[in-house]
Design a protein that fits this description.
Blueprint lengths: L1 E5 L6 H6 L7 E3 L1 H8 L11 H19 L7 E4 L5 H9 L3 E4 L4 H11 L4 H11 L10 E3 L2
Parallel strand pairs: 1-3, 1-4, 2-3
Antiparallel strand pairs: 4-5
Helix pairs in contact: 2-3, 5-6
Length: 144
């Protein structure tokens, strides 16, 4: 099964997955990939452009390989703001789309406390781009 977990930065997407994934499942999380590729002592949320470019390439490679194995193991993919094209692709794969959103004020406070300030811009874009028909609570399953 493929689970695509969406939500603004600092919403708790990784925590949602950690509460559900088994050790044998595949978890594709850009933050985790970036940390794995970063040098010793790098910050947890490293926004270095070169490192991010390499991490994105690794993420796509992992995604396409994992998609081939979703009938054997659960695949959890964090995709903060999937485009219509990606959502259509996930729908063709019978993915379950999960939106994790504890609310804008909580997200912004978490970003202030723990993340690069640039993530506020990403969170604002996420809240503006949500389909108007979505009603969600933290961890709600959506049928897109």
């Amino acid at each position: 099964m493929l689970y695509v977990v969406t939500g603004p930065p600092a919403a708790g997407k990784t925590s949602w997955i950690e509460g559900r994934a088994k050790p044998s499942d595949i978890v594709i999380d850009l933050d985790r990939i970036t940390r794995a590729l970063a040098g010793p002592g790098a910050p947890n949320w490293n926004q270095d452009p070169t490192l991010l470019r390499v991490a994105h390439k690794a993420r796509y490679a992992a995604m396409f390989e994992a998609f081939e194995h979703r009938d054997k193991v659960d695949v959890f993919l964090i995709h903060t703001m999937p485009t219509g094209k990606w959502l259509a692709r996930y729908k063709r794969m019978d993915a379950t789309i999960i939106a994790v959103d504890p609310g804008r004020s909580i997200v912004m406070a978490r970003i202030e406390a723990m993340r690069d300030p640039e993530m506020k811009r990403v969170a604002t874009r996420w809240y503006r781009s949500r389909p108007a028909t979505k009603t969600e609570t933290a961890g709600a399953t959506l049928d897109w």
